[in-house]
Design a protein that fits this description.
Elements (H helix, E strand, L loop, with lengths): L7 H19 L5 E4 L3 H17 L12 H10 L3 H7 L3 E4 L5 H13 L4 E4 L1 H6 L5
Parallel strand pairs: 1-3, 2-3
Helix pairs in contact: 1-2, 3-4
């Protein structure tokens, strides 16, 4: 069936809602990875997932930590502004544009289960071994 649309960004946007629904249905309490083609698309996909969770009034659905202070403290150490925002909702970004410290922090949070969703470019597949 595929996704209609001639242009890349609108076509990717139409895939975000089914992707959100698949995570909620098939992996509600387990880690999930979403691979996208660009750094920009990691940010756009994360923002869409946050938006979809907000419509269900469950914005912290992908965050598994006891206190907001913990994740806020970690977010304050990050350099990437988009990552600072998305990490507080339990969604990590992983791409070559992040500093190595930001990437290591996201990897650690994903591995320990604090964040449930990781949106990444192919750089993750090339150099990091994380369970999906």
């Amino acid at each position: 069936q595929g996704y209609p649309g001639r242009h890349y960004c609108p076509r990717m946007a139409t895939m975000n809602k089914p992707c959100y629904a698949a995570i909620k249905d098939l992996s509600p309490n387990k880690p999930s990875m979403i691979f996208v083609a660009s750094r920009r698309q990691t940010r756009l996909t994360a923002m869409d997932l946050i938006s979809h969770s907000a419509t269900e009034e469950d914005t912290k659905a992908f965050l598994n930590c006891d206190s907001d202070e913990y994740i806020e403290a970690i977010a304050s150490t990050l350099n990437d502004e988009a990552l600072k925002h998305t990490i507080t909702f339990g969604i990590g970004l992983h791409h070559a544009g992040l500093t190595s410290k930001d990437r290591e922090t996201v990897e650690k949070l994903y591995l320990e289960g604090t964040i449930q969703v990781l949106i990444a470019t192919a750089t993750l597949a090339w150099g990091v071994n994380l369970p999906a």
